[in-house]
Structures are given as structure tokens and as C-alpha cells.
Design a protein that fits this description.
By secondary structure, this protein is an alpha/beta fold. It has 10 helices and 8 strands. The chain has helices spanning 6-9, 27-30, 56-68, 80-83, 91-95, 121-133, 142-154, 159-176, 199-213, 245-253, and strands at 39-43, 72-76, 100-104, 115-118, 180-182, 190-195, 221-223, 230-235. It starts with 5 loop residues before the first helix and ends in a 6-residue tail after the last helix.
Length: 259
């Protein structure tokens, strides 16, 4: 979606999407693939459908299936800290399902930029070579890690609080009647809000709101097959706790008046 098909241009890999892009990935979707696989990538949570999560048992069946086909199971865990709030397992238990796990330092942890790859020693040694080849072996990267370590201390213990606030926000938004969320009850601190407004109008209204109040309701509006509607993503962190659910619902309802 976001890296200009770098996997193909740089590494010569071919991407094979499976399943319904508007639904959770399942084992039956994976079984439709009838050709050899190198790796299966699992995103946790599945961002483009509102941060949904498969059941832990289903996820284990899927990673077992991948390994049974001779493929590696890789976790796009940029938001694995948030994802863990939706499972009744620890972070080590969740990560242990996969051969490798990528985590972001600047999303849930609130760092500046950067990421970490976790895996067995041999894989990490190999990845280190490719990091240098791809220009990622920057000098003095320790400040990126240092700020992320602060996030581990300050943000990570509050992930369950963020998830609870996300559920309260969604409840207020759905009760208001103007907009609705997917999922109706967020599985993680991430969810989507659907508006009865064209995307361009919603974007303009949000920019006007930010100029007038200093409140950035969302970064960008997403288009919808129905041009009269759009959606945006909510990712709850420390700053979101400053706004009560009722306040957020009221701001959303007032968007048409700010176009």
C-alpha cells in the first residue's frame, strides 16, 4: 500500500493478496493459494478494516498453515502494542506465533521514527546485511531507540487504558447518531469513523477545526465507494485522553458547519 511496491522493485518478490479486503483474513482465504510461498505477512491489528483482530486460536492455525507450506510467518506488528490489548495473551506469547516481528518505534510508543525487527539470530544477521544495502544503517541511531525506550516506560503500560477510551469514544459517536464506527466496539485503540459527508468536505472541515481550535480530529479522510460518504481513522494515545467522549462526538457532529 505505502512503499511503492518496494518488495517487487528492490527484491523481485511478487505479492499475492488473499481474502476480502473488507474482512478479516482467515485460514480458508490462505488455502485458496495454490502455489509455493516464501512468506505470509500478518498485520496486527488489521488497520484498513478498523483495527480488527482474528481470534488468537485462528491466528495460530494460520501461522501453523504457513509453516506447513514451507513459508515463514512474518508479523507486521507496527501496532502490536495496541493489538495485544485485544488478546488474552502476553506480548511474548503473541510474538512467539511468528518467525519474525516488525515493530514501529513511532506509532504507539510515540518515538520519532524507526523500527525494530525481532527474530532468530541467523535471520537478524542476514537482515543486518540488507539494512546496510538498503541505506538503513545510519550512524548514531541510538537517539531513536532512546526515545522509544521512554515510550516503553510511559505508553506501553497504558495501552489497556487507550483501548478502554477507544470503546468509550465509539459508544459516544454511535449514540450521537450523526456518524458511526467500525467496528461498533473497537477491538484495539484503533477504529474508523464513517461520516455522511464527501471526503473533500470532511477534510476541509477538519482543517478548519484545527485552525480554529487547535484540535486535530484526524490526519486525512478516506474515500468511500459512495461519494457522499467518507471515513477517517482514530488511533487513541495519550493526547486523545484529553478529550471526553461526548466532546469528540460533538466535534464530529459539527463538521458540516465548518466546511
Amino acid at each position: 500500500m505505502w512503499e511503492n511496491q518496494g518488495y517487487s522493485a528492490v527484491h523481485g518478490l511478487r505479492f499475492h493478496p488473499v481474502g476480502d479486503r473488507n474482512g478479516l483474513l482467515g485460514l480458508d482465504d490462505l488455502k485458496t493459494v495454490k502455489e509455493p510461498l516464501v512468506a505470509v505477512v500478518f498485520e496486527l491489528p488489521q488497520r484498513d478494516i478498523g483495527g480488527l483482530l482474528p481470534a488468537f486460536a485462528d491466528l495460530r492455525h494460520q501461522t501453523d498453515w504457513a509453516r506447513g507450506r514451507g513459508a515463514a510467518a512474518h508479523c507486521d506488528g507496527a501496532r502490536i502494542w495496541e493489538a495485544q490489548t485485544g488478546f488474552d495473551v502476553t506480548l511474548p506469547e503473541l510474538a512467539n506465533l511468528f518467525d519474525t516481528v516488525y515493530v514501529s518505534l513511532y506509532k504507539g510508543l510515540g518515538g520519532v521514527r524507526g523500527a525494530v525487527l525481532a527474530g532468530d539470530a541467523g535471520t537478524i544477521e542476514h537482515a543486518e546485511v540488507w539494512r546496510r544495502r538498503l541505506g538503513g544503517a545510519i550512524a548514531d541511531a541510538w537517539p531513536l531507540a532512546a526515545i522509544a525506550l521512554m515510550g516503553l516506560d510511559e505508553n506501553l503500560p497504558r495501552m489497556a487504558e487507550f483501548a478502554a477510551h477507544a470503546r468509550s469514544l465509539a459508544l459516544a459517536i454511535n449514540d450521537d447518531g450523526f456518524a458511526h464506527t467500525t467496528p461498533e466496539v473497537p477491538a484495539t485503540p484503533l477504529f474508523h469513523v464513517h461520516l455522511p459527508m464527501p471526503r473533500e468536505q470532511a477534510q476541509r472541515a477538519a482543517e478548519n477545526l484545527a485552525e480554529e481550535t487547535g484540535i486535530k480530529l484526524f490526519l486525512y479522510a478516506r474515500s468511500n465507494p459512495d461519494p457522499r460518504r467518507c471515513s477517517f481513522e482514530v488511533s487513541v494515545g495519550i493526547s486523545a485522553l484529553e478529550l471526553a467522549p461526548g466532546e469528540v462526538a460533538e466535534l464530529i457532529r459539527g463538521l458540516p458547519s465548518r466546511v
